[in-house]
Automatic annotation (TrEMBL):
Residues 12-155 form the Flavin reductase like domain. This is Flavin reductase family protein. The lineage of its organism: Bacteria, Pseudomonadati, Thermodesulfobacteriota, Desulfuromonadia, Geobacterales. Keywords: Flavoprotein. The keyword Nucleotidyltransferase does not apply. The keyword Flavoprotein applies. It comes from Geomonas anaerohicana. Belongs to the flavoredoxin family. Its cofactor is FMN.
Amino acid sequence: MKKSVGKGPHAMPTPVWLVGTYDITGKANLATVAWGGVCCSDPASVTISLRKSRHSYDAILKRGAFTVNIPSQQFVVAADYAGIASGKNEDKFAQAGLTAVKSDLVDAPYVGEFPLVIECRLLQTVEVGVHTQFIGEIVDVKADESVLDAKGLPDPAKVQPLVYSPTNRAYYALGEVVGQGFDIGKQLMK
């Protein structure tokens, strides 16, 4: 029997993404977001959600761009820090010991040390309650060669991305592969 736990953002897990922007003064900034994901395959697009009070909010609107930086598990401290400190008051890149790399495709920085980076051009915004959903078209994905598989694509086992549980506010690592998509379910087809 299931028990109601009430309404809330109990979907799990969510990604741990650090969004890179340049603020109105041109300073590189990071914001950790867990409200995000792929939202379209053509054009390839992602979505992130921020409150208007966040320092990155105006930066994305003014610059029309952002990066999604996917940290490996070794960067859990930096990821959490970027979500609790404000770019209004601190240089998050410097404090976390990270390198801001200027994208040559969009007006936003990315994290040099992170294995996977998605460069996005802002397509549109959608107001949803206390958040604004920013939809970004993927302009390019950059990956360290060390995290690519035999086909030249990012391998989650090598990236070792973090995931987040909003329910208990905890970071987790991914587990083992349990099946191949668009294949394992065929055993139930008639």
